[in-house]
Specification:
Layout: H1 6-21, E1 31-37, H2 55-63, E2 65-71, H3 77-86, H4 90-93, H5 113-119, E3 123-127, E4 142-144, H6 157-166, E5 173-178, H7 214-244, E6 250-256, H8 271-274, E7 275-276, E8 278-281, E9 290-297, H9 301-308, H10 323-326, E10 337-341, E11 352-356, E12 360-365, H11 373-382, H12 386-391, H13 397-405, E13 410-414, H14 432-448, H15 456-467, E14 470-471, E15 474-475, H16 484-492
Parallel strand pairs: 1-5, 1-6, 2-9, 3-4, 3-5
Antiparallel strand pairs: 2-7, 2-8, 6-8, 10-11, 11-12, 12-13, 14-15
């Protein structure tokens, strides 16, 4: 080294030292775009579906990280959304049923993602429904198109409004865009989308139905048409992000809020209800085209987003940051994952708790050997002609539907050999050690997370409140009076 180089090296070293001690600026923080779809599982091309066309989401998976084993904590709209926004299981945050049926968080003061990001300097916005009570707990700076929009009206406005928000300022933004597809009604075409809709002649029913009828093929085709329309609209949104010039510094998260509103999907604890698509793209922080097979939950999104935004962490969250998985690392990770069910509306109160490991899954029905009203709700509302078809179905499909109607206390499934959960192994001597292990893990988790239904009195009291709103054979919202936020909290928190 000659003496003439020393004056050049010293200023550079000083500059690097200054950069190390300077606080992060707003420009160094990623924007966050969360895209949530309604009522769809992993029925996307990138997850291997043979019929649906989803080129936009397939490309997003190619550019980002696709999580093969992603789950929501409960297969319900409000419950799933509240869980990702608070980082807590429904039985921990209180949103155990639909917001439209008066269910809510235990407390307005429950920490949530929006408050945390605002405190970290983010502008926050939401397009589409929030569907969590109380809405005042989530102080978004911008709220537009807050209705459910199940009629799919003016869907082009989602991208237009998003672009105006994303381009507005230089401060980092968080934007949640919530689309109505693929919620019922399954509208074949809306706003001329999709341009080439599928019909029942083009598809077969989802394999976890175990049943094939012309009616189910038509339903499945229009479900796929909803997914195709969703894909196009997400494409419009991502083009809007590109036009803002902020795509390179935006972390994109896409997930479905729970499975399809079809047989053995939404409102159940089966894979068709709780397993969802999850794709994350973070430019410059991940190897494109990764597929991760770890067991992950949308509960992991809050700690992930708090970390990448440099927001203050929230203590005692059950989820884990996905950042090391996104970045392609191989950290120690959970070996078992938990989900639950309480009810959706008053029509289907049937509490369940579930644990799954690498291969086996255990469902505990907390009201065993009683009629499951959710099974009958789905059949009677959408598929009144199917009971005869179910009764004549071959084994083990027929027995699986019989079990759904009046389940025993435990259901054990081998997801490797029986991915669609048709064969209950809970009474199998060969699987006794697996059953005992999962049962113990489930019990430990319930205690650790202070499950209020560990106290049978809480279950009885809530069921009584729900039953009290039934009049002349139907349930009425105006007759529903709920006090569980008081007595659950007193006994379990």
């Amino acid at each position: 080294m000659n003496r003439q180089s020393i004056p050049l090296i010293l200023p550079l070293a000083i500059l690097l030292l200054v950069l190390q001690v300077l606080p992060l600026t707003a420009d160094s923080l990623p924007n966050i775009l969360v895209i949530v779809s309604e009522d769809n599982g992993q029925e996307l091309g990138c997850y291997g579906d043979p019929y649906v066309k989803t080129p936009v989401l397939d490309q997003l998976a190619t550019e980002g990280v696709r999580f093969h084993n992603a789950y929501v904590p409960q297969a319900g709209c409000s419950q799933s959304r509240a869980a990702y926004l608070t980082g807590l299981y429904p039985h921990q945050n209180g949103q155990i049923g639909l917001a439209t049926w008066k269910f809510s968080l235990y407390s307005n003061e429950t920490p949530n993602l929006i408050r945390s990001l605002k405190a970290a300097g983010y502008r926050t916005g939401i397009l589409g429904k929030l569907h969590v009570n109380p809405e005042s707990a989530f102080p978004f700076d911008m709220k537009e198109k807050s209705g459910a929009n199940f009629g799919r009206k003016k869907q082009g406005e989602y991208a237009t409004l998003a672009e105006a928000f994303m381009a507005k300022e230089d401060t980092p933004f968080f934007l949640s865009v919530n689309y109505p597809d693929a919620h019922r009604p399954f509208i074949r075409t809306a706003n001329n989308l999709p341009r080439k809709p599928l019909t029942g002649e083009d598809v077969k029913p989802l394999p976890y139905f175990g049943i094939d009828t012309p009616e189910l093929r038509e339903e499945t085709a229009d479900y796929y048409n909803c997914m195709s329309r969703l894909d196009t609209l997400i494409g419009d949104l991502l083009q809007a992000l590109d036009r803002c010039g902020k795509a390179d510094n935006t972390l994109i998260v896409y997930f479905g809020d729970h499975g399809a509103d079809l047989l053995r999907g939404k409102r159940t604890s089966y894979e068709g209800g709780t397993r969802v698509p999850l794709i994350i793209k973070w430019p410059g922080h991940q190897k494109p085209g990764q597929v991760r097979y770890e067991l992950v939950s949308t509960l992991d999104l809050m700690p992930t987003l708090l970390e990448v935004s440099k927001a203050s962490p929230v203590n005692n969250l059950p989820g884990h940051s996905l950042r090391p998985l996104i970045e392609g690392l191989k950290p120690e990770w959970r070996t078992h994952l938990f989900t639950e069910f309480h009810l959706h509306s008053a029509h289907n109160f049937f509490p369940q708790r579930t644990v799954r490991g690498p291969r086996f899954k255990l469902i505990q029905n907390l009201m065993p050997n009683q009629t499951n009203p959710g099974h009958h709700f789905t059949l009677n509302r959408f598929f009144p002609s199917l009971p005869d078809k179910i009764a004549s179905s071959p084994e083990p499909v027929r027995s699986a539907y019989v079990l759904m109607a009046k389940p025993p206390e435990f259901e054990l499934y081998d997801l490797q050999e029986d991915p669609h959960e048709f064969i209950n192994l809970a009474g199998s001597k060969e699987h006794q050690s697996i059953f005992n292990d999962l049962k113990q893990r489930l019990s430990t988790w319930r205690k650790k997370t202070k499950d209020p239904f560990l106290n049978p009195r809480n279950l009885e009291m809530l069921k009584a409140e729900v039953d009290a709103c039934r009049k002349d054979g139907s349930y009425e919202k105006k007759l529903l009076h709920l006090n569980y936020t008081q007595y659950f909290f007193e006994t379990a928190h």
